[in-house]
Structures are given as C-alpha cells and as structure tokens.
Amino acid sequence: MEGQTISSNVPLPAPESRCSIESCADAVAAQIEARPMCLEHFLSGSVQELETRSTAIRGQSYDSDATQSFKALLSETAKEAQRLAEHQEFSQHENRRRLLDIVFRASHLSQQLRRSSRVPASMSVWLRREDPGRTWEEETWTSSISRHGAGLVCRHLVETGSMLVLCRKGIGERSRARVVYCKYDGDGRRQIGVEFLDRNDFWDSRYEASLKNAAATT
C-alpha cells in the first residue's frame, strides 16, 4: 500500500446514495466489501473491523482463504481512506487525520501477515525470555514452522508483542522473535506464534523438507 497516490479530483459518492448502516440516512462517502457507508461509520467502523479480522486470522497460513480475504479488505480500506484524505473537502479537517490513521493501521497490519506458508513440524527448541527481572527458559517443541517463524507450545505466560529468543538444540542457532498470537489448543496447552526478527534461515533445509513432506501427503 506504500506509494499509492489517489487523485484529489476523484469525486465523492453522489449525495443521494445513503449509508447502509441501519437507521443511518447520511450520504455515502466510502464503500467497503460492497457496503456503502457514510464518513462517520467508515471512520468508526474501519479500525474496529480491521483489528477484529486480524485477531481472527492469527495463526493461519498466509495462503488461507481468510487471510487472502483480509488482504483484500486491507487494500480496499486503505485505498478508500487515502482517497478521502486526499480530497479537498478534508484537506484542513480533523477527519483527515483519522483517515490517515486508517491508512497507517491497514499498512501495519498488512506487514504483519504471515510471509510464508506454515507447515506442521515437531522440532525441539529452547525458548527463552531475557528481559531483566523476567528471565526464564524452557525446553519445548514446535507444532508448526514457516520460513519466518513458528508455532510453539509454551508453558510460561507471555503476551502478544513479547520478545523471546529461540535456540535450536544441538547446533546452537538462535534468533530473536516476537510473539504474534497466544491461544490454547484442544488439549489445553498454551500455543504461541512467533515471527523471527533478525533472520529467515533459522530452520535452514528443515523448512523446505517439511514443506515437501506436507505437499506429498495432501
């Protein structure tokens, strides 16, 4: 979404068009997923919808239908917000700041989407938290891996956004990682998803081998 430019000459929807939100008769300013919305409902609803959808797809593969649908929503929302922000009617208006905030949020969420396919794989690793005063270490295993992260069982309580360190047993490879989701599986175990911050070769050939094995069994 970076680098997108929308002409300020693009007209707003015709005044006779009305917002699709129940009990709202205001004129339409934007249309998202074929739903016409007035400016206020677009401003108030877009951020909430993006965050809700982002939470719902955490842990899914980059190629899942839900993720692809979310990518389309991010793109459409950012384009509409950018179009409105560039329109002369809002050039000196507080709503322009809110519209640009939507563009920023959509771009940020887009960058957080998984960048490679996730495949089931059980690999033993050391998981560490090295924050002063909150240091701990545990031996655990992955439930899935991708080129840019992993899903893991974690016995310690962690929050989304926490910084951890993964170490591969035996060879000593390590990488800093950020927690992107935390949930419980059907057996009551805490599952976390992490994305690597400083490398994309942590699994070396193991990821490619797991990817081929997964393809061969489908």
Describe this structure in words.
The protein is α+β, with helices and mostly antiparallel strands. The chain folds into two domains: 30-112; 119-216, Thrombin, subunit H, CATH 2.40.10.220. The protein contains four helices and nine strands. The protein has helices at 39-57, 65-86, 94-112, 205-216; strands at residues 30-32, 35-37, 119-120, 124-129, 136-146, 149-153, 163-168, 174-184, 190-196. The strands form two sheets. Strands 4-5-6-9-8-7 form a six-stranded antiparallel barrel. A two-stranded antiparallel sheet has the order 1-2. A hairpin with a 5-residue loop joins strand 8 and strand 9 (190-196). Helix 2 (65-86) packs antiparallel against helix 3 (94-112).
Task: Summarize, please.
This protein has 218 residues and is α+β, with helices and mostly antiparallel strands. It has helices at residues 39-57, 65-86, 94-112, 205-216; strands at residues 30-32, 35-37, 119-120, 124-129, 136-146, 149-153, 163-168, 174-184, 190-196.
List keywords for this structure.
alpha+beta, Thrombin, subunit H, two-stranded antiparallel ribbon, elongated, disordered N terminus
Rounded to the nearest angstrom, the radius of gyration is: 21 Å
Strand order of the largest sheet: 4-5-6-9-8-7
| Main pleated sheet | 6 strands, antiparallel, barrel
- Text of the CATH class of the largest domain: Mainly Beta
What is the CATH topology of the largest domain?
Thrombin, subunit H
N- to C-terminal distance: 34 Å
CATH architecture of the largest domain: Beta Barrel
How many extended strands?
9
Stretches with pLDDT under 50, minimum 5 residues = 1-10
Overall average residue pLDDT: 79
The proportion of residues in beta strands is 15-25%
Number of helices: 4
CATH superfamily of the largest domain: predicted glycosyltransferase like domains
Order of helices and strands: EEHHHEEEEEEEH
